[in-house]
């Protein structure tokens, strides 16, 4: 009996993920059906986090499952010291990833194997530059977040005054930034006659390919104008739109993987929805991602605007209100009557009017789709994660809508409330008195402005790197000041009730 119990316990023990253990996977967990030892690299991906593994790497994995794209395997890379921790975890499991799909009412898992190596993280990025210089590498893709493109908020061009950009201009052979490393590799390829590669941004950034071209070419021009011209004329920088909700990994996600029978140090959970819309501009070839569900089109911009304005801006509509009211996740925000009412009203009245339809989808239907996706209780996407780096996300996602609405003379009351909620959040305390820990690269400056704005709301709008031009609009300034004053005096819930028509501020009289 004891031996039988021991065998049953051993059978139930999670499989420690690595190449050798693939044959031991639980029956309901699909693994790679391709010979990973036969794969050859064609892509380097820089900034290898959860989103890449659940999205771009998954599309390639699907092609490999069909017996295609054998020479397009991915090598992971990073340019910052903190990337070393992820490298250590993934190399220990042969760069395999457990992808856990969280559908409403069901959970399933598969093992993706499209990544085959992860480069060492070194000062000066020597291993990355050398590997990108290899002619076998034909695509360099990246997810470096919206704030990682060194954009000057006043000009929209490269921020040449940024310390990291100045350092790369002074040390082009030992760069610190991803764009400096790309420029250095392209210089080596040009010198060796190896030809260019495609640089493919996969970040949630309007015109992400255009922004990437600008960063690489502008940085190269600071030290080598001829190289800059060669990059500009020969390399491709396709624009794209990427979409999949991918929460951060914590102890709960690791425990879920174990429940599914896999011991994975870095599993990825994701929703049961993906979209990838790509401009078909690849100077050195590409995988047939369309055969795995991606869309190639010259009209990326329309898809991009719809997604960034309704989904990404929608996230900001929810997150700051949720943080103030101690709501933990985005799904919990959608279950909160006042926050959900804010989301619907802002989407219908102040966002959707400035979004064009795309084939088979209009903005109203897309907003309803996003509402369903955000409401999925299986996705534990935290408000804190979504609210991170508001100093990049608000200017990138919310402010373009504000500018369009103001130019059109449309309502901006809800978007002004969203900005006021962000300003109140950055004061660093929730309405229950708990502390909001630093959650932005510019948190200290934001906190100072937020506290000053309690007495003088314009102090928040005077952050010119964030509100360039908007602070001078009298209508927006008045609406923002009204909402911020109400939030400080009566609370966020009171402001939400007033905006959604479920109450009125103290001192207001009924009509």
Automatic annotation (TrEMBL):
Residues 300-481 form the Mannitol dehydrogenase C-terminal domain. InterPro entries: 6-PGluconate_DH-like_C_sf, 6PGD_dom2, Mannitol_DH, Mannitol_DH/Oxidoreductase, Mannitol_DH_C, Mannitol_DH_N, NAD(P)-bd_dom_sf. Residues 42-291 form the Mannitol dehydrogenase N-terminal domain. Pfam families: Mannitol_dh, Mannitol_dh_C. Keywords: Oxidoreductase. One of its GO terms (molecular function) is oxidoreductase activity, acting on the CH-OH group of donors, NAD or NADP as acceptor. This is Mannitol dehydrogenase. It comes from Leisingera methylohalidivorans DSM 14336.
